[in-house]
Amino acid sequence: MPLWRRKSFWLALSVFWLLLIFLGLFPLRLAVPPRPLPGRSQGWPRWLDAAFLRSFFQPEALPEDGPQLRQAPRGSSCTWGACFDTSKCKGNLLKIFVHSSAGPTAEAHRRILDSLEGSRYYALSPAEACLHLFLPSQDHRGACGPLPPYWNGGRNHLVLSLYPAPCTRLGQAMVAEASPSSDIFRPGFDVALPYLPEAHPLRGGVPGQLRQHSPQPGATLLAVAEEKGGWRTHASACPWDRHCEQDPGPQQTHPGETLPNATFCLIPGHRSAASCFLQALQAGCIPVLLSPRWELPFSEVIDWTKAAIIADERLPLQVLTALREMLPSRILSLRQQTQFLWTAYFSSVEKVVHTTLEIIQDRIWGASGRPSLMWNSPPGALLALPTFSTSLKDFPFYHLQQGSSPESSFSALIWVGVSGEPLLKLIQVVAGSRHCAQILILWSSEEPPPDRWPETTVPLAVIEGHRKASDRFFPYDNISTNAILSLDVHSTLSTSEVDFAFAVWQSFPERMVGFLTRNHFWNEAQGVWGYSTELANEFSMAFTTAAFYHRYYHTLFTHSLTKALRTLVDDTPACVDVLMNFLVATVTRLPPIKVPYGRQRQDAAPLVAEGPGPRPEPQPLAQDCINHVATRFGHMPLVSSRVRMDPVLFKDPVSVQRKKYRSLEKP
Amino acid sequence: MCASVKYNIRGPALIPRMKTKHRFYYVTLFSIVLLGLIATGVFQFWPHSIESSSDGGVEKRSIREVPVVRLPAASPIPERGDLSCRMHTCFDVYRCGFNPKNKIKVYIYPLNKYVDDAGVPVSSTISREYNQLLMAIADSDYYTDDISRACLFVPSIDVLNQNPLRIKETAQALAQLSRWDRGTNHLLFNMLPGGPPDYNTALDVPRDRALLAGGGFSTWTYRQGYDVSIPVFSPLSTEVVLPEKAPGPRRYFLLSSQMAIHPEYREDLEALQAKHKESVLVLDKCTNLSEGVLSVRKRCHQHQVFDYPQVLQEATFCVVLRGARLGQAVLSDVLQAGCVPVVIADSYILPFSEVLDWKRASVVVPEEKMSDMYSILQNIPQRQIEEMQRQARWFWEAYFQSIKAIALATLQIINDRIYPYAAISYEEWNDPPSVKWTSVSNPLFLPLIPPQSQGFTAIVLTYDRVESLFRVITEVSKVPSLSKLLVVWNNQNKNPPEESLWPKIRVPLKVVRTAENKLSNRFFPYDEIETEAVLAIDDDIIMLTSDELQFGYEVWREFPDRLVGYPGRLHLWDHEMNKWKYESEWTNEVSMVLTGAAFYHKYFNYLYTYKMPGDIKNWVDAHMNCEDIAMNFLVANVTGKAVIKVTPRKKFKCPECTAIDGLSLDQTHMVERSECINKFASVFGTMPLKVVEHRADPVLYKDDFPEKLKSFPNIGSL
């Protein structure tokens, strides 16, 4: 081998080795950027022998984690499962019996009794009841008065007191009292009530004060609840003189009863401030509770984080910063939630008492009780009956939250007082709609129903009524769709009108969609409600003799209205329209929807006719109805509208061929 | 390497015609290239060995090497837990302080091995799960390694299972932690509390004020709003993969799979099985299995052998019965199988019950009512059962399936208590992703008709058409409910006319000058807007009558969460082109309204400016078009509702203008508008627009009624 060759060979080899050693020493640092070492900056080491660690849980090694029987409830530490016997509630329905102490009933007791009487919970005898209501007397503090008969250690008893109770823990009884201290409150067993002012209305009650969704620009940020009652507002949003460095600015003090006018209401944590809480709620002022030592009302079911801010009193400045920087979207939803909660559960004594009972009813139902959404979104749990359905999609008001849409077919429910030609024609018209799923004839005539019915493309069924007006809104099992077209035998409609009205209803499934309407007004001179039947620029009620609405309102009509109201309707059938409109308006807080009615002539009177039998003076009677029903409801829920929903090309000077609902325009 | 050397030698032979002089050169070069190759190859294998052999230190070491701490027999013991503790009494929030991210800082103590005076270890150092748990915390955003900045302290002393613990010594170990301070702000994790014979439902180790994340609380031991109830982790979660099974009826209606059940309860269950035969299955441990088969993974009924947990997927409802402890790992298995748990454990606090709505995923039956269980379950409608099955599986996926999920959910709950204004909502905790996607939460959900007295603010976007602008101002000022007029001057090169030249109107008139000529300036949430209702109006819309505008405002009051406009437009699916198409023909349907004149809530200005998804806002400004379509998309998407078209008006006709209508006729304009719809639909990921067949007219519109008695007679032109 020539020298140069050998030389070069060795040279190459040595260079090779040198490089190899060199690179071997600093390879990572030169070539690859150092990998982030897991664990170094993150503190917890990756153990080399982590794979050999034993599990905390060795099923084999837990032979003793086995049999043990239930423990008896310990003293006053009651839970629902241990201290309430649900088997006493037949059909899982809550029935209550009220034991009022002997002697003159206190004002507070009388109000509770009034709110219960005639409600669906009311039991006439203690044997029927599964919950006994005990109203401790308010007279002598400390003593509870004599215990009622059937006391049975307090089992299945509810001690209800609208004010902080004079005596609380009584055997195995549940306690519902105003703003209970969170130290003694038993979650899931006791019920926390709001602290109601003395003059709280029995029924209905004032609606929330909020008139607009978002706060007025430049509105006061913060009102602070005063020790002696009333509110203090600050111009500079610095409520703590000690903590703020800047000048606290001019402050205003508002006396006791006035509602705060600010975006946020600061409420200290001690129990005596609990009375401010409802004021803030009513005013639409978002409550900011600083470490409350009392249980928030109905905390078992109401998600207060959606309506209030519960903050730590030790971090006032931090809270203040958070309030100032809160996103408009959050403020918007908190504000609206305060109003919804106030109107749904707190505005009257009746609502507070009924909410308490519904909470207990929900416990009895267990899995078939109301889902949280029902309690925490409009219209609220008192107006959403889970007996109707446990699926939220079946209700008219949760379509948005559920991401569902109303069905595309309806059932026609024709109420027949007198048989005749118009009925057959009406059946043809309704069956002509491609959205019609079934026709139900509610036969309320003295004569027997005919044996043969016209051939229709949709199924037709006859329901024998009891010739009572309230029959019309009974939740019949035969109704197979959520949409109902309620008709009177005298209704004269065209298929086109039915189709269009149904298309509109699908956009407003929670409202009533009607053809003929009326408006209500306040008659200053006589101090009564009145209403107009003639053509007007506004309306607030839809006639149920030709209207689309959701099947759920039948359930609500039959099961939530008091007996007195249903009797009123049976006695004076003309009131049925008014009552139904009141009911729907209570739920929606909105007016019905009006759609055009082709044959709107002065002789539209037959359509107006309601109920069987002769009615000599419908007008004054109806006037009477509205006042009667308004008194029973405790407020006027009807809302007026100035809008009618027409087809997009309605009566436009364009070719009729373009129009989908052309027969609506025929004179 | 030898091979490569050989190859190296052969190198020159491959280039025979090369000059010798160059050969040396080439050989060297070749070898260097080869070297590079080898070195790179070496990298692939070396880093690992380097890491393990080099100073690893904190990162990698053996558990056997952790420091040993000797606990003198007389070292202090913390007091027993204080049952009256609440966040505002026992928790020191000052340590958490102000934090722009609203996240608590968590510190983990380093791992030590504790021995008593005699040198006997207090417990096994750490379990696999606790190691995973601390690792999960350390990897999360909550972690800090700076003890002085921490708000929450997690000891590395493993108390997940109380069984192997020496209670007193463990307590002493806790007490000597550097920041113990009576346990303030310390968080302990425990899944198996208590021990024989009475099985307390909370950890027996004295812990003073420390928070306890416990897996078996009862109502007597759980400090509501202070402790956190956590699940008992089931190791099967990681060992077994159970594919999600579609909800629906399954082979067995009710199944019990637990092995250690009190004989009395087993009798109850077997009575149920006897009564309902095929639909109930009660399993027990297997007695006749051959050696080597894991008995944990097998269950038997008489002589039939079933695989566990797979068998759980065959049942609609699965019994979760209390044992000596209230918390049972079987709950996790049951949820994983998408079986609806029937929890029979009086006074048990279900895992994460502070935030999770267990009603949606489980049935709780009192122990007393065990024999009625079947009929209780049968009363639940099938649709609800399917919802529950879906929910059960989702709870497992989100909060049960790993130690990490459990640890992070626990910290999130504590975080939400400390920063309540940034807390996660009920929906975020409980709604499964499918619901989160389809559901709409309308920001203006309260049914409310704002008072008429509030009025509306008209916002006129203008560039330089002063004459036309002044006419619009004069016309709009005739509307009774107008409360303010805002002119947005979008021309940077020209000053707005002098104050004296503007028309004199009865309401305040403000001029806002913009920094850039952008279409989105029309939808900016100006501070000057004081009313909730906003009327967006172009500077050439002079044909709308006062009645039309006033009526539009009245309609908006009844539908404050919607876009209320005049000419309506429609989107259609073009089957040939397979995409959306913009339609301005006079159709029977509408899905959009033009914002050349439209009423809407001012909140939508905020949304348009700050919350518009994707790059839509920039796209609109770049194309100088489609801002109205973008607004229609935004409102429909956030409210889930359709627009309201008012009055028969079909177009904005004006003598000299070339705006919307002039352009609308233009073919390219239509193409561009269609493109906008397709672009927006892809950004939103869905088509939010809703099609309706109705428009809003005054109640007596075109009715046979004296015109002068109608509220809005001057309505009707197209």
Automatic annotation (TrEMBL), chain A:
Keyword Plastid part of the UniProt annotation: no
Pathway annotation from the record: Protein modification; protein glycosylation
Domain Glycosyl transferase: 410-650
Keyword Glycosyltransferase: yes
Domain Exostosin GT47: 105-325
UniProt xrefs under InterPro entries: Exostosin, Exostosin_GT47, GT64_dom, Nucleotide-diphossugar_trans
Localization (cell): Endoplasmic reticulum membrane
Membrane topology listed for this record: Single-pass type II membrane protein
Key words of the record: Disulfide bond, Endoplasmic reticulum, Glycoprotein, Glycosyltransferase, Membrane, Signal-anchor, Transferase, Transmembrane, Transmembrane helix
Superkingdom per UniProt: Eukaryota
A Pfam family this chain is assigned to: Glyco_transf_64
UniProt feature coiled coil, ranges: none
Family: Belongs to the glycosyltransferase 47 family.
Annotated protein name in UniProt: Exostosin-like 1
Species name: Microtus ochrogaster (Prairie vole)
Gene symbol of the encoding locus: Extl1
UniProtKB/TrEMBL annotation, chain B:
Highest taxon above the source species: Eukaryota
Protein name: Exostosin-2 isoform X2
Record InterPro entries: Exostosin, Exostosin_GT47, GT64_dom, Nucleotide-diphossugar_trans
Domain Exostosin GT47: 101-379
Compartments it resides in: Endoplasmic reticulum membrane
Entry similarity comment: Belongs to the glycosyltransferase 47 family.
Segments traversing the membrane: 24-46
Membrane topology summary: Single-pass type II membrane protein
